[in-house]
């Protein structure tokens, strides 16, 4: 529904045309709990006549039933749509509302105030041009006010309305207003917020909302709606250089080949010279094709199909940019990440990263620090938990084109995706490429792993033994290596305990350290496979994600997962090192199977249960499997090669 206008009755077509061409402002409301965000938005909807009669009737009924204004209209109920919100009197999710005035259309996001909903607030702010930060005049600048202001700055919003609300409850006192504004401006300057308009308001009474109020004659500025109608918000996407991520390669027939996508920023014209990234190839725009015909110009926000004057290999995820002003290309970055998952972010774990339409594998190689958003203090961290924000280094498996987020939201923002369940686990902004990424290149060598393995009369591979402590991994791996060695094979055994005496002696047993432990061993295993060796790795390696990372470092057929699936009750009864007893007594923290999870393999190449097989039988079965797969031809194990039933 749009703002009521006399044109509706006089000339509906003229009204619709005028409404269609109004400018659009996206803004968010944020601040501490009970500062009046929902009430303010409800007042805006009410005063702009965006409520149908049946909605108004329902609002009046709900106000008497669950309202907080003693039977008077409770405007917050127009926004707090979730039952849980009505019961608690708080906003949990991001609530989007649409309204319009004679001059402009608006999309407003009412974002949560509680710290545990930081991810929701960031989501609501990600597309906003302006932030309305509310402060309760009775309480002043609070911790949550500072936190939301920091998040606003982090997301890149530069225009702020400081709405000092509930002025009616402090007698419309000018001194209180000015004291709050001075304190807020001092803090805002520290985080780079300088474009601030402070307005004293009462969302409940309507003071300075749609019109200036006579209750505060000392305030000479605009009303909130007047400012929102007239504020000049720079269209950064339109001002930025041309960028378009390819969503689809359009080939309806042999005579047409176009590249479809949404223009992220800038403008493009036929004849413009563009560069395709990351390949770096160039061509000229031949046509700008749409369903309604060809265009002479396309701008940010339009979905178009571009054809080129030259045949170039372009795929989904590639970026088209003006050749004279292209983005940088890199595969290692410093970035800021807001973590949105109940499972913590762990360095070394592999995630999907989506930037534009490009999907690449990404690993956090280092957490430089996390930020206490309440105090802005930078804290050391080995992981990020739900709603935490950190500065991290990212490493990608393929280079991607990018602009720093401060220059272009679309080509500098990304999300991280869990590779197992495809859920979004984090959102981030790219700050800059790490300099070393430009200086490190693969060096070509003439002797490769196939030549080395051929000299050894074997095919290089990794046998990755995984299972609970005490399952028999090291015993079986040792037996397998002894028999391989006796046959003249070239092997190396990486054992979990042994590696922790050297390479990984700096790591503990937290989830983050376990991930890094396996990442290092996986990289060492890859080098040993490159050397042409048969590598036996005996590690608990409790997480599927890290075992999957180790597998993906190698070529198909070079990684065999050996799951020693001995049940917990059996290994605990053995307890050769007394570790389970200590773990049960609480003397050992983060012990796999007791106080830390173990994720069994889902499709292991070899499964061994030592509660039903002897170590010798298990070793023989593994050797037979290697022979059948052609990795070590000619092995004849002396022991029985049939696993026990």
CATH T-level topology of the largest domain: Rossmann fold
Distance between the termini: 71 Å
Helix content: 25-40%
Number of domains in the coordinates?
4
User: Would you identify the CATH architecture of the largest domain?
Assistant: 3-Layer(aba) Sandwich
Alpha-beta classification: alpha/beta
Summarize the structure.
The protein is an alpha/beta fold. It has four domains: 7-232, Rossmann fold (3-Layer(aba) Sandwich); 240-322, Elongation Factor Tu (Ef-tu), domain 3, CATH 2.40.30.10; 329-435, Translation factors (Elongation Factor Tu (Ef-tu), domain 3); 449-628, P-loop containing nucleotide triphosphate hydrolases (Rossmann fold, 3-Layer(aba) Sandwich), CATH 3.40.50.300. Strand 11 (273-277) and strand 12 (281-289) form a beta hairpin.
Topology:
Elements: H1 7-10, H2 12-20, E1 23-31, H3 37-47, H4 53-66, H5 83-88, E2 95-100, E3 104-110, H6 118-125, E4 130-136, H7 143-155, E5 159-165, H8 174-190, E6 195-200, H9 224-230, H10 236-239, E7 243-245, E8 248-253, E9 256-265, E10 267-268, E11 273-277, E12 281-289, E13 298-299, E14 303-308, E15 319-322, E16 328-339, E17 350-355, E18 358-372, E19 377-379, E20 389-402, H11 409-412, E21 413-417, E22 424-433, H12 436-439, H13 449-455, E23 461-466, H14 473-486, E24 491-495, H15 496-499, H16 511-530, E25 534-538, H17 544-552, E26 559-564, H18 568-574, H19 579-584, E27 606-608, H20 615-628
Parallel strand pairs: 1-3, 1-4, 4-5, 5-6, 23-25, 23-26, 24-25, 26-27
Antiparallel strand pairs: 2-3, 7-9, 7-15, 8-9, 9-14, 10-13, 11-12, 11-15, 12-14, 16-20, 16-22, 17-18, 17-21, 18-19, 18-20, 21-22
């Amino acid at each position: 529904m749009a703002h009521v206008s006399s044109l509706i009755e006089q000339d509906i077509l003229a009204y619709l045309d005028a409404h269609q061409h109004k400018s659009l402002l996206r803004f968010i409301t944020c601040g501490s709990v009970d500062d009046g965000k929902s009430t303010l938005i409800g007042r805006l909807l009410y005063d702009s006549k965006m409520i149908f009669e049946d909605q108004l009737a329902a609002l009046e009924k709900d106000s008497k039933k669950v309202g907080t204004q003693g039977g008077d209209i409770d405007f917050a109920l127009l926004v707090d749509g979730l039952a849980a919100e009505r019961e608690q009197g708080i906003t949990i999710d991001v609530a989007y509302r649409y309204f319009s005035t004679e001059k402009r259309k608006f999309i407003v996001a009412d974002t949560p105030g509680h710290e545990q909903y930081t991810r929701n607030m960031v989501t609501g702010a990600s597309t906003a041009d302006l932030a309305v930060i509310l402060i309760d005049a009775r309480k002043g600048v609070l911790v949550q006010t500072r936190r939301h202001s920091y998040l606003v700055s982090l997301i890149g919003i530069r225009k702020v309305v400081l709405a000092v609300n509930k002025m009616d409850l402090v007698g419309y006192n000018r001194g209180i207003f000015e004291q709050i504004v001075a304190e807020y401006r001092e803090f805002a300057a520290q985080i780079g917020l300088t474009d601030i308009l402070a307005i004293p308001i009462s969302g409940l009474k309507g003071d300075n909302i749609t019109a200036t109020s006579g209750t505060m004659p000392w305030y000479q500025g605009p009303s909130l709606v007047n400012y929102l109608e007239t504020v000049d918000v720079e269209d950064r996407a339109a001002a930025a250089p041309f960028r378009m991520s390819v969503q689809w390669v359009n080939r309806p027939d042999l005579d047409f080949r176009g590249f479809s996508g949404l223009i992220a920023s800038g403008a493009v014209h036929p004849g413009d010279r563009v560069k395709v990234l990351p390949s770096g190839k160039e061509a000229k725009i031949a046509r700008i094709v749409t369903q309604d015909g060809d265009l002479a110009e396309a701008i940010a926000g339009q979905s178009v199909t571009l054809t080129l004057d030259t045949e170039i290999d372009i795929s989904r995820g590639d970026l088209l940019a003006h050749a004279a002003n292209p983005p940088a290309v890199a595969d290692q970055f410093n970035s800021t990440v807001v973590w949105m998952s109940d499972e913590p972010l762990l360095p070394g774990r592999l995630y999907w990263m989506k930037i534009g339409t490009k999907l690449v594998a990404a690993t956090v190689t280092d957490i430089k620090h996390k930020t206490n958003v309440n105090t802005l203090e930078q804290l050391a961290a080995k992981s990020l938990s739900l709603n935490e924000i950190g500065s991290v280094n990212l490493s990608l498996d393929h280079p991607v084109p990018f602009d720093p987020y401060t220059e272009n939201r679309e080509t500098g923002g990304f999300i991280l995706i869990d590779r197992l369940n495809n859920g979004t686990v984090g959102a981030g902004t790219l700050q800059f490429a790490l300099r070393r990424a430009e200086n490190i290149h693969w060096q070509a060598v003439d002797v490769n792993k196939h030549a080395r393995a051929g000299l050894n009369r074997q095919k290089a591979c990794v046998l990755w033994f995984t299972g609970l402590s005490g399952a028999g991994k090291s015993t079986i791996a040792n037996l397998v290596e002894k028999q391989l060695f006796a046959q003249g094979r070239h092997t190396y055994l990486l054992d979990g305990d042994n590696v922790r005496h050297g390479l990984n002696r700096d790591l503990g047993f937290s989830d983050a350290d376990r991930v890094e432990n396996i990442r290092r061993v996986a990289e060492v295993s890859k080098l040993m496979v490159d050397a042409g060796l048969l590598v036996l790795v005996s590690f608990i390696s409790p997480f599927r994600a890290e075992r999957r990372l180790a597998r993906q470092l190698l070529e198909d057929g070079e990684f065999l997962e050996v799951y020693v699936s001995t049940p917990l009750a059996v290994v605990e009864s053995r307890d050769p090192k007394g570790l389970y007893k200590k773990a049960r007594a609480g003397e050992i923290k983060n012990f796999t199977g007791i106080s830390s999870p173990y994720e069994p393999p889902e499709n292991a190449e070899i499964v061994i249960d030592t509660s039903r097989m002897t170590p010798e039988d298990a070793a023989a079965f593994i050797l037979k499997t290697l022979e059948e797969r052609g990795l070590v031809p000619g092995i004849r194990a002396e022991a029985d090669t049939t696993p026990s039933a």
